[in-house]
Amino acid sequence: MPERFQLPPPGFLKTEIINLGPVIEPKYSDAEDWGRFLPAVETTPVRYEERSLAELDRRAAAAPEIALAATEIEELLRGKRYEIISVGTRELDRNTEYPVVVIYDYDADITIEAIVDPAQRAVVQVTTSSNQPAVSAQEERRAIELVRADGHLPDNGIDVGTGLGLIIEDVDIHSPRHGHRLVDLRFGPRDLRMPAAFAIVDLSTDEVVQAGLFPKGLL
Predict the structure, then answer these.
(1) How far apart are CA 166 and CA 93, in angstroms?
(2) Which of 147, 176, 197, 202 has the fewest CB atoms within 10 Å, counting from its CB?
């Protein structure tokens, strides 16, 4: 005769209240200072240079204009579709720190980094690479608007305003989208464990590559 099981087992969900003892009032505050048991340590004051965050912000705000006005940057971007992705800082040596402007060229699919000296209003160094920087807030908004204009997800009841994206790469060297600026967007109410929909957007061509709904069983 087969055994019969009950799920959950009897008493499985029963919760015992732990007795933590009496509440101490007033709070226990006369503990010994255990520091007296530690060996004395000789300390040496360290000199440091105070830095103004407002000055750093001012230099970062001026950096994009200086970078775009530089001859070498202008030649790289002439007639191209591009966007400033971010402005950070770069240390050239221990005592020299400059703003670095990261620009993405969507036509050539290259990342341009320009190190700027705001005091001299000059570009110190320019480098290009195929590395993909993290998606910017502007790019994420643009990708969401392309999905909205595509209509497939909105027509299926998806609030595309909930979209969050990250950069992905097509590793197939034979793919026409290899090296392109691809954003993987996920959509859905933030109180769900899994997203309700997805979209792959190619910002190099301003196209929605793929969009769809996740099976409801995964939510």
Answers:
(1) 32
(2) 176
